[in-house]
Amino acid sequence: MSRDVNVAIVGATGAVGQAMIATLERRKFPYSTLKLLASKRSAGQEVQISGRTYVVEEAVPEAFKGIDIALFSAGGDVSLKLAPEAVKRGALVIDNTSAYRMDPEVPLVVPEVNGEDMFGHKGIIANPNCSTIQMVVALNPIYRKYGIKRIVVSTYQAASGAGQRAINDLRQTAQAILRGDEPYAEVLPVSKLSKHYPLAFNILPQIDVFEENGYTKEEMKMVNETRKIFHDQEIAVTPTAARVPVVYGHSESVYVETRAPFQLEDIKSLLNAADGVVVQDDPAQQLYPQPYYAAGQLEVFVGRLRKDLYEDNGLSMWVVADNILKGAAWNAVQIAERWISRDGVKH
Ligand code: A2P
User: Fold this and answer.
1) How far away, in angstroms, is 58 Cα from ligand 1 center?
2) How far apart, in whole angstroms, are the C-alpha atoms of residue 206 and residue 217?
3) Residues 142, 86: one domain?
4) Is residue 346 predicted with pLDDT exceeding 50?
5) Contact 323, 249 (CB under 8 A)
6) Which of 57, 78, 164 to mutate to test the pocket of ligand 1 (most atoms within 8 A of CB)?
7) Are 175 and 274 spatial neighbours (Cβ–Cβ below 8 Å)?
8) Burial track 61-91 (b if 16+ CB lie within 10 A, e otherwise)
């Protein structure tokens, strides 16, 4: 690996930005300089990383001078404004927001699935939505061998996917309900009704805003991103996305109909051999993936594998991953690792 990579993190003070820093350290990413960027509010703030002090700077266009790789996770508006500035100054942008995901010029990459797409970039590579990432990692080996006609997926998404304030909401509404007080939630969901719904002791079948077709924006991301990643506009995806009172780790109940018939044992061996997948599937031992145990891990956990009772080509599975790591920070750092290991920092 090249050792003279200058890295910047935009949104370094946020939940994903912090996880990006931790993941670079965990992976011993060979950066020679690391620049932490956030809003003006955080400029001057000191951050300790592996015994060294870093000072957060304001994210402005000039900050990208000399940067080779810029990891963005400061919201779509910041990416729309600053990613082109970073590219103009010679940086490769890996963007964790939805700003560029459906742009035909921008590769949407999950390294285990369509890693090669990243090499066609024109300065920006997009990181998919967290729920899409873990689903396509689990489905990829099945898709490659048997093809996939249809996916019906229900998500059980953690509070952390909506940011630090949503985690605070979950904790604080749980405490209020346990005390017997009226809960007051601040962020989940952005409700037009008189009060916001608590996440504690509750499930919210809404993530992001509703579109005209009755699906939420989060659900439509799963439809459109899955097709783009597999380069297959024929896959039918029917999602329902829900927020559950879990802090870290998204879970998904995934039902797929393959194009060709399969044997369950073969699906298990394919998944056992798949990059980035851990199979936890032993009903006799009550072994199955759970977000509590997936939190902090880099892999995608798959279990509850079973054939449909009625549809010959139908398969059900339970898929869990840390939404902040594989769903965001780790997928971005993994793209950066592949990039420098293949092409150095030249592009
Ligand atoms: P700041 O802490 O200075 O507000 P989260 O998703 O956890 O809320 O984090 C959002 C991240 O995006 C934070 O690091 C935040 O920095 C950063 N951010 C928000 N607005 C801007 C902006 N206008 N310019 C640069 N960074 C921003």
Assistant:
1) 10
2) 9
3) no
4) no
5) yes
6) 78
7) no
8) eebbeebbbbbbbbbeebbeebbebbbeeeb
- Whether 250 sits among the annotated catalytic residues: the reply is yes
Supply the pTM of this predicted model: 0.96
Residue 73 CA: distances (Å) to CA of 36, 97, 190, 260, 313? 12, 6, 21, 39, 39
Residue 144: pLDDT band by 50, 70, 90 thresholds?
A: very high
For residue 34, the domain's CATH number is 3.40.50.720
Q: Is residue 39 in contact with ligand 1, taking CB distance under 6 Å? A: yes
Give me the CATH number covering residue 140.
Answer: 3.30.360.10
Query: Does one domain contain both 197 and 74?
Result: no
In this prediction, residue 330 has a pLDDT band, given cuts at 50, 70 and 90, of very high
Q: Active-site residue 130, yes or no?
A: yes
Q: Is 74 in the pocket of ligand 1 (CB under 6 A)?
A: yes
Lowest mean pLDDT among 31-45, 99-113, 184-198, 231-245: 184-198
Structural domains in the chain (count): 2
pLDDT at 189: 62
Residues 122 and 11 in one domain: yes
| 15 CA from centroid of ligand 1 (Å) | 9
Per-residue pLDDT at 44 exceeds 70:
yes
Residue ranges making up the domain that contains 99: 5-128+328-343
* Token output for 144: 């490659």
Residues 117, 138 within the same domain: no
Give the closest residue to 199 by CA, choosing from 217, 222, 176: 176
